[in-house]
Design goal:
2 domains, 0% strand, globular
C-alpha cells in the first residue's frame, strides 16, 4: 500500500478503517503512519489523525513510543482541530506515563481554557485532566474551578461531560 496516496485519496471513516486494517498490529507500518502524522503537511496530518486514533483503540502499545511527539504536535500553531481532537481522545483511554503527566496536564488545561477550541477537544481534555487528578489530587481544585467558570455559558455537550467529571472528582 502506498500510504500517503491512501491518506490523500479520500477523507472518510471507510478509508481510515482500510488504513487501520493494513497497519494491524505491525509496529513498522504504524511507524510509517505516525511519520506521516508528524509531518508538517496540513492535510496529511489531519487525515492520518483519525486512523491513528483507531489504531490506538485497538492496541495502545503502538502509541506509547510516540506520546511526547503527539502531545507537542497539538501545540503547533495552526494545527487542524482533528489533530488535537484525536490526540486528546486517545489520552482519555491510556495510562499516561509519569514523565509526560505534567506536559499532558499543561496542554489539556490550555485546551480546556481556550475559548476557541471545539467542544469535543474541551470535553476530551476535561476527561484526561480528571484521570490525571485521580493520581495528582492537587489538580482537582484547578480543574473544578475551570469547569465551573465555563458552565454558565457552555453548550449541552460540555455541560454533560462537566457533570460527569465533577461527580468523579468529588
Amino acid at each position: 500500500m502506498n500510504l500517503i496516496e491512501e491518506i490523500l485519496k479520500e477523507h472518510s471513516k471507510k478509508q481510515a478503517l482500510k488504513i487501520v486494517k493494513w497497519v494491524s498490529n505491525d509496529k513498522k507500518k504504524f511507524h510509517l503512519l505516525m511519520q506521516l502524522f508528524l509531518t508538517n503537511e496540513y492535510r496529511v496530518t489531519q487525515r492520518s489523525a483519525y486512523a491513528i486514533s483507531i489504531c490506538a483503540d485497538k492496541n495502545t502499545a503502538l502509541i506509547k513510543p510516540y506520546l511526547r511527539k503527539m502531545l507537542l504536535k497539538t501545540k503547533e500553531p495552526g494545527i487542524h482541530d482533528a489533530v488535537k481532537r484525536n490526540v486528546v481522545r486517545i489520552l482519555q483511554f491510556i495510562d499516561i506515563p509519569k514523565n509526560l503527566q505534567g506536559l499532558t496536564a499543561t496542554i489539556c488545561f490550555d485546551l480546556l481554557a481556550s475559548i476557541d477550541e471545539p467542544i469535543a477537544v474541551k470535553c476530551f481534555s476535561m476527561s484526561v485532566l480528571s484521570n490525571l487528578a485521580q493520581k495528582e489530587p492537587d489538580l482537582k481544585n484547578e480543574l473544578l474551578l475551570l469547569i465551573e467558570e465555563q458552565l454558565p455559558y457552555a453548550k449541552a455537550g460540555f455541560k454533560s461531560r462537566a457533570k460527569k467529571v465533577i461527580k468523579q472528582l468529588q
